[in-house]
Amino acid sequence: MKTILYMGISANGYIAKTDGNSEWTSEEDLKGFYEQSKKAGNIIMGKNTYLAALQYGYFPFPDSLNVVVSHKQIENKWGDNVIIMDKPPKEILAMLEQKGFTAAFLAGGGQLNASFVKEGLIDEIYLDIEPLILGQGIKIFADADFEFWMELIDFKKLNINTIQLHYKVIKNQ
Ligand SMILES: NC(=O)c1ccc[n+]([C@@H]2O[C@H](COP(=O)([O-])OP(=O)(O)OC[C@H]3O[C@@H](n4cnc5c(N)ncnc54)[C@H](OP(=O)(O)O)[C@@H]3O)[C@@H](O)[C@H]2O)c1
């Protein structure tokens, strides 16, 4: 099972403004996000990301199994396309593996990303870097005690101002 993280970020590493708004990422970032999540067939998100997606009318993502992670009880009004889980990252991946998925698509936000990375459970990272600097906001990884190196798999220009970096996480560092 391979876990792929895909994030649209400001040039200084934020995924949203302090109020949770991430509507500033490019069309190309959204397109890449959808394509990769569709390819994996699933999309794992933290509760705040689920709430933001709901607010902006994206939730549930139609072509994927939507997995929402929260310690709270959230009513599932959507049916089989949505799973709400209060489980650690390893168990979420095991659940997806059991359902026959070979890749897991991690869709943020910063808190959930940090809980996966702390356990060494991210294999590949796509960063769509937007030409924006934010003075404050929500970081791609919430603060925690971790550090990891990556290898560059690929890079490309998505539009005149946006660059995509595709990394492989080096394991056993
Ligand atoms: N630019 C982008 O590409 C992009 C992508 C995704 C999201 N975003 C933005 O990121 C923002 C949200 O990020 P965030 O860091 O605030 O929040 P988040 O990671 O989306 O959600 C955090 C919440 O998820 C639950 N959670 C996280 N890890 C958990 C774990 N290991 N076990 C159980 N529950 C867990 C907890 O919910 P409970 O408190 O209910 O337990 C936690 O409070 C949104 O504003 C969204 O728009 C941007």
From TrEMBL:
What Gene3D superfamilies is this protein classified in? Dihydrofolate Reductase, subunit A
For this chain, one GO molecular function annotation is: 5-amino-6-(5-phosphoribosylamino)uracil reductase activity
Q: Name one GO biological process term.
A: riboflavin biosynthetic process
- Which residue intervals define the domain Bacterial bifunctional deaminase-reductase C-terminal in the entry? 4-152
Q: Which residues form a coiled coil?
A: none
Any Pfam family from its record, for instance, is RibD_C
Membrane-crossing residues? none
Q: Which InterPro entries match?
A: DHFR-like_dom_sf, RibDG_C, Riboflavin_Biosynth_HTPR
The record, for PANTHER family, names: 2,5-DIAMINO-6-RIBOSYLAMINO-4(3H)-PYRIMIDINONE 5'-PHOSPHATE REDUCTASE (PTHR38011:SF11), DIHYDROFOLATE REDUCTASE FAMILY PROTEIN (AFU_ORTHOLOGUE AFUA_8G06820) (PTHR38011)
Q: What is this protein called?
A: Bacterial bifunctional deaminase-reductase C-terminal domain-containing protein
Q: Which organism is it from?
A: Candidatus Azambacteria bacterium RIFOXYD1_FULL_42_11
